[in-house]
Amino acid sequence: MDGPVAAVDGVGGGRLGPDGLVRCPWGMSTPDYVAYHDEEWGRPVRDTVGLFERLSLEAFQSGLSWLTILRKREGFRRAFAGFDPEVVAAFGEADVERLLLDASIVRNRRKIEATVVNARAILALERPLEELIWSFQPDTSARPVPRMLADVPAQVPESVALAKALRKAGLVFVGPTTSYALMQACGLVNDHLADCFARGAAGG
């Protein structure tokens, strides 16, 4: 985003952008981040396709910048059939080899294969993916609203338990930190800072 970014003194860790809105600092650096922060991050996602997409993107992000993933998101959607688990579960070795040649995504064999494995595991779940994931929603009523980025945890006991449940169900690339990032992205917790304008829209 062009223009100055100033701290909002005495209020919290949010930053004032040139449009007059206070945001979490991480949501200020590029138009991609601004859009993702303002319109998506922290909003509830309660459908299988949406959660499978975000699980997959979190896995692909491991070791990379989230900005790289955002800028390749449409490529990922095309490559993985809109993250329809029924379609992805049917991918075979030829599809993996095809995707390894697709420059519109992150070409990592282990992560591509993990996405297929996870699609198959999702289809085999005893209850819908969204029901499983949301059953681990943390009770944040007693937790102070984060005022600074340092107040936001990397993981919580519920994300540790969620990761364990997902792994038990056969999913891979789902550790406690990744599970907490999923919770943040999909609205199970609201980690927008106290003075961020998007906190109210995300339900907090």
Can you characterise this structure?
It contains 11 helices and 3 strands. It has helices at 31-39, 48-61, 66-71, 73-79, 85-89, 93-99, 109-123, 129-134, 157-168, 176-185, 198-201; strands spanning 6-7, 15-16, 22-23. Helix content is 47%, strand content 3%. The chain is mainly α and 204 residues long. The chain has a 3-stranded antiparallel sheet, with no helix packed on it. The chain starts with 5 loop residues before the first strand and ends with a helix. Mean pLDDT is 92; it is low at 1-10.
Report how far the terminal alpha carbons are from each other: 25 Å
Q: Which regions contain 5 or more consecutive residues with pLDDT less than 50?
A: 1-10
Given the structure, what is the number of helices?
11
From the alpha-carbon coordinates, what is the Rg to the nearest angstrom? 18 Å
Strand order of the largest sheet: 1-2-3
String of helices and strands: EEEHHHHHHHHHHH
| Mean of residue pLDDT values | 92
Shape: globular
Class based on secondary structure composition and strand pairing = mainly alpha
The fraction of residues in strands falls at under 5%
* Number of DSSP E strands: 3
* Helical proportion, percent range: 40-55%
The main pleated sheet reads as: 3 strands, antiparallel
